[in-house]
Amino acid sequence: MWLKTWILILCHFAIVGCIKEKFVAGNNFLLKDSPAEDGSNSARGRPERAVSRGGYCRLRGCCPGRDDGCNFQYNARNAICYCDSFCTSGSPASIDCCPDFWVTCFGHPTTQPANIRTRPLQQEGCTKGGHRYGEGAIFKDNCNSCKCINNHWMCSDETCLVRPNLINQINSGSYGWKASNYSQFWGMSLQEGFSQRLGTFPPSAALLDMTPVAGNLMTEMDFPEHFVAWHEWPGWIHDPLDQRNCAASWAFSTASVAADRMAIHSKGRFTDNLSPQNLISCDTRNQYGCKGGSLNGAWSYLKNYGLVSHACYPLFWSHHPHNTCAISSIVETDGERRATHPCPNNVEPSNRLYQCSFPYRISSREASIMEEIKENGPVQAVMQVHHDFFLYKSGIYKHRRNAGGPSQSSHQSKTHSVKIVGWGVLQDTEEKRQKYWIVANSWGKTWGENGYFRILRGQNECDIENLIIATKCHF
After folding, report:
1. Would you list the DSSP string of 25-53?
2. Where is it chiefly localized (predicted)?
3. 284 phi and psi angles, rounded to 5 deg
4. What does the alpha-carbon distance between residue 57 and residue 70 come to, in Å, rounded to a whole number?
5. Which pLDDT tens digits describe the chain residue by residue (475 residues)?
6. How far apart are CA 307 and CA 473, in angstroms?
7. Which of 144, 152, 416, 474 is catalytic?
8. Contact 439, 462 (CB under 8 A)
9. Half-sphere exposure of residue 155, counting CA atoms within 13 Å on the CB side?
10. Is the pTM of this model over 0.85?
11. 278 catalytic, yes or no?
């Protein structure tokens, strides 16, 4: 009897031992080194294995310390999870406890122990200014664009035309002029400003080789301290137009100087403003309309073909193609040109063409420029535009190389043409005499001083005294 009992007991332990050995062997067969879910090996270098689906820590109980064999396949995350207390060590990003570990081992069904660190839930998308944007969202920041890629903003790095920090630096400094944040420039890069808001090609050899007219060799003292053309010839000097994002200052400055001189030389018989759009659309020989043009080409067209008034051929920004000429003409027996088509603006009856002679160059001497303006009217000037000029609001402009701005843009400049209408003198904060030119730009009357700007005189600031052009007109 006792012998049979001992035999049964021994058989039971033998069967249990075989089952346990087989189970461990099966586990060892399935062991393998698997990468963690972040693409690297386990932070603690443990082997990971694929096991059959089922429960987690409750099947084994809590395993204290470290037991690398106490792991399960966590299908919800497609990863291996552990049931030993060692799973709570390491950085929060590497915590890999099974989901029922806290309940089974610590008896906390809803909250985790305060000293246990858990992996934070990562949201997809990017944050900007306190707002959450989804993956692939595009955020516009002035002239730069940012796109949310893999939870990070990927942004372009353009130098913007309007830079608030530069405006603040100029306005808080002693530069002699003030800057402004112009809404029409917001969102544009500096390169877009150079390519769309200027448009005069560098002077050709034909202009630079012209012999300057020196005048009567008068001195600065022979002229009044202040002179402006609209006071000398009231009603005959035309206000600035707005070229907008059409790079055609070559056409705007030429037409405006010619119109002023037409009124002055005719003693007020013809006071029409001349059409820059006529030049942009019709002067196409080696000219590129709103993508740039040369001054000698513009003056040549004005001499040979003439221009109609701005009222006859206005600026069709939104619906008129710039490269289509709406005016044609023939030469009459008396040598004058006559338009053969009515005005593009059909409410304007007069399609008269106005012609001027080929231009002449004025000496760069300060007194010679003053003499020409006082005797014959405004002149055309070519200048170099730097990054800070776009922000000019008031005062006597002088480019300052240390006035902020990224280093790669602080030395850049592009050619622009403008109309000088007078001059003046101002005492600065240090009681020094500051001489200046009064100049009409072509960026509309909301820019600068009602469309005009003052710039340092007598020092060839921004090369503005290098090339001065004037003309006489036919009647």
Report:
1. HHHHHHEE--B-TTSSB-TT---EE---S
2. secreted
3. -110, 0
4. 8
5. 555 555 556 555 555 455 445 444 444 433 334 444 444 444 445 544 444 444 678 777 677 777 777 887 777 667 778 887 777 765 554 567 787 777 777 766 544 544 444 444 456 788 887 788 888 888 888 999 989 988 888 989 899 999 999 999 999 998 999 999 999 999 999 999 999 999 999 999 989 999 998 878 788 889 999 999 999 999 999 999 999 999 999 999 999 999 999 999 999 999 999 999 999 999 999 999 999 999 999 999 999 999 999 999 999 754 555 568 999 999 987 778 999 999 999 899 999 999 999 999 999 999 999 999 999 999 999 999 999 999 999 999 999 876 555 545 556 899 999 999 999 999 876 778 899 999 999 999 999 999 999 999 999 999 999 999 999 986 6
6. 12
7. 416
8. no
9. 14
10. no
11. no
Q: Which residues pair with 1 in a beta bridge?
A: none
Catalytic annotation, pick one of 273, 278, 345, 441: 441
Q: CA-to-CA distance for 352 and 129, rounded, in angstroms? A: 58
**Residue 353 token pair:** 């063409």
CA dihedral 284, 289, 292, 294 (to 10 degrees): 40
How far from 396 is each of 253, 414, 456, CA to CA, in Å?
21, 20, 6
Q: How many CA atoms lie within 13 A of 243 on its CB side?
A: 33
Domains and CATH numbers, the chain: 30-118 (no CATH), 129-155 (no CATH), 165-470 (3.90.70.10)
- Cβ–Cβ under 8 Å, residues 166 and 402: no
Annotation marks residue 416 as catalytic = yes
